[in-house]
Design a protein that fits this description.
alpha/beta, Rossmann fold, Jelly Rolls, 3 domains, 21 strands
């Protein structure tokens, strides 16, 4: 760590551009492009960091600096729809390295999937060595860009008692120096709210007590100081760069610190590299977010083993009053005990480092075991490194077969007359022709495409060639596609033989689906359609909240009205909702076991979709591999 500290301790010059509390540097031109041109929907801004983001201590939550920054962007781009999302976490920048890795979901929590990430870890990094914080923050900055090369990033430093004490003593805090050196190296804008507030306090314009009751979370008066700084910063940020004609990928320089590593990731407990021994139960409900599901055992002595390469290994689990103590050993060393936190009154997510400073090029082995009575609830492992890819070398078809082989098999019998309105489709499949298939809908239809079900169909119909064309728009259904001749762009230009319409974004509007069908057939009268009822989505969605195994024909629910439209328009119809949710309910697993986030399917969920479609399309009398 010594070399990191010596580099980070260098005083920075040339930071200010019109103010001594912010630096524009390379700006956020890519975000400016998206603010101006992206009209798909909400533009999510990801504020990631400490408890200041919660707005605790404010009477007016609209004074949160995250809200003020979002509104400032809106003033500059009135046609945009920026939406702030705030992600508070324990562990500061260290856990941020894992939580935000390549936009990886932490069992359903997708971080940094928008176009702008605002990072603020000053409060939670208070007890962290600045050199160690710099390593984590550099890895995090790199991972955001590795996830999406057009991502914009901003660093924010909010005030803490330690930072105020340094400014009061006339010195630049070591933490700020380290962060600013990274910001210079990567050309990232930074906003030093700590410096701005400290200057006002030291000038006597506001007392420290009036600024914040605890030195961290501002009062309304303190938040108004932050708001002043935010407004000036955003104005300068937007003025510094013109809106580009198109987003430009960010080119990462070499790491500033040799010890930095941008391989941080959460290795989920169900990863094939994790070997389980004992009575572990996967896919169980978690008592705390953001876990969608956890691995559970109540038996002492059950073990998990992970082989990996990397510099650091840790654990993320649920610490609870009934929690079991855990013991761990790395590379055959004596076991060390990780006891439940003393006095833990309620369950909480617990990220913890187990071993640091490992040779990142060497194979290591972690063994974790339950070491006392109680319940262990494991989420995954925090690894700055790599694990073996269990699917390396497999074809796409072999990969989805391997995923499905680890699941309980589907039991679904499709209706016998399902091909009545698909004569050309069935002829192309059986006769070995080419079938151009358009998938129209939203991101759930993206999950349908990701299932690679067409590979299963081509295996069932060896002579057929299926050209699958996903034609998708996030959160979009036929209420959108029916307007302004959009069927030309989204359907007709692809010259489809078969169109699959589905997803969860049709707003229960079966008439909009009918309109799209008629518009397409007015131009291509021979086009065939398969209408799909919804799968996946949030548990509050109607097709889950009011689920019935068979379609309820006594009410005007969407499944019923879509079935009627299909019959009247001579479209094929697949009530996928019934067998899909029945499978999940009967699986013995929590819904989150099949989810990638709060709405979408993960690889297992995609295989439910894909295997149901395979069974629906499977011709009677044909052999099943």
């Amino acid at each position: 760590m010594k070399r990191v500290w010596l580099v980070a301790a260098v005083c920075l010059a040339g930071v200010s551009r019109g103010a001594d509390y912010f630096a524009v540097r390379g700006g956020i031109p890519n975000s400016q492009y998206f603010f101006k041109n992206d009209r798909v929907g909400n533009q999510y801004l990801f504020f990631i960091g400490n408890e200041v983001l919660s707005g605790a201590g404010l009477k007016d939550p609209g004074l949160r600096y995250s809200t003020q920054m979002t509104q400032a962007f809106k003033r500059h781009f009135p046609g945009a729809n920026p939406v702030e999302t705030r992600h508070m976490q324990p562990g500061g920048s260290w856990f941020g390295l894992y939580r935000c890795s390549r936009g990886q979901p932490v069992f359903g929590e997708v971080i940094c999937s928008g176009h702008l990430a605002i990072l603020d870890f000053a409060a939670d990094d208070r007890q962290t060595d600045p050199g160690q914080a710099a390593l984590a923050l550099e890895g995090l900055l790199r991972q955001i860009t590795l996830y999406r090369a057009t991502h914009s990033r901003i660093l924010v430093y909010t005030l803490t008692p330690e930072l105020l004490a340094d400014y009061r003593a006339g010195r630049v805090p070591a933490y700020i120096r380290a962060c600013e050196q990274l910001a210079d190296h990567y050309g990232v804008p930074s906003l030093n709210l700590a410096r701005y507030a400290a200057d006002k306090i030291l000038a006597g314009q506001l007392s420290a007590e009036a600024f914040s009751a605890d030195g961290i979370r501002p009062t309304d008066a303190g938040a108004r100081l932050y708001a002043e700084a935010v407004a000036a910063f955003v104005d300068a940020l937007i003025a510094a760069q013109p809106v580009p004609e198109k987003p430009a990928p960010v080119k990462l320089p070499a790491p500033l610190f040799a010890e930095s590593d941008d391989n941080g990731r959460i290795v989920a407990y169900e990863h094939p590299a994790v070997r389980r021994e004992g009575a572990w139960q996967p896919g169980q409900a978690s008592p705390v977010p953001p876990f969608r599901h956890v691995l559970v055992t109540d038996r002492a002595g059950d073990t998990l083993t992970l082989a990996f390469k990397g510099s650091e290994i840790g654990l993320i689990d649920v610490a609870a009053p009934d929690g079991a103590a855990l013991a761990y050993a790395v590379d055959g060393a004596p076991f060390q005990t990780l006891a439940p936190p003393p006095g833990a009154a309620t369950p909480a997510m617990r990220p913890v480092a187990l071993a640091r400073g490992l040779d990142r090029a060497t194979e290591h082995t972690l063994v974790l075991k339950t070491a006392s009575p109680g319940t262990a609830r494991i989420g995954g492992f925090l690894l700055n490194g790599t694990v073996q890819d269990a699917f390396a070398g497999l074809t796409a078809l072999q990969r989805i077969d391997a995923i499905y082989a680890a699941m309980d098999p589907l039991a679904y019998t499709p209706p016998p007359e399902r091909f009545a309105h698909l004569p050309k489709t069935l002829a192309a499949l059986r006769g070995g022709g080419t079938l151009r298939m358009v998938l129209l809908g939203d991101s759930i239809m993206g999950n349908t495409s990701a299932s690679s079900f067409e590979l299963l169909l081509m295996r069932d119909y060896p002579g057929a060639k299926i050209v699958k064309i996903p034609s998708l728009r996030s959160s979009t259904g036929c209420t959108y596609y029916r307007e302004e001749n959009r069927v030309q762009e989204y359907v007709l230009r692809h010259e489809p033989d078969l169109v699959l319409i589905g997803g969860i974004s049709n707003r229960s509007d079966a008439e909009a689906v009918r309109d799209v069908v008629r518009q397409v057939r007015a131009v291509r009268p021979g086009t065939e359609f398969l209408l799909l009822t919804p799968v996946f989505g949030a548990v509050r969605d109607e097709h889950i909240k009011s689920f019935t195994r068979e379609i309820d024909t006594s009410t005007g629910n969407f499944r019923h009205t879509l079935m009627k439209v299909a019959a009247e328009e001579r479209c094929a119809f697949f009530d996928m909702t019934g067998p899909w949710w029945s499978y999940i309910q009967e699986s013995g697993k929590y819904y989150g076991w099949f989810m990638g986030d709060a709405v979408h399917a993960n690889e297992r969920g995609c295989q439910i979709i894909g295997r149901l479609l395979r069974e629906w399309f499977k011709s009677e009398g044909r052999a099943t591999p």
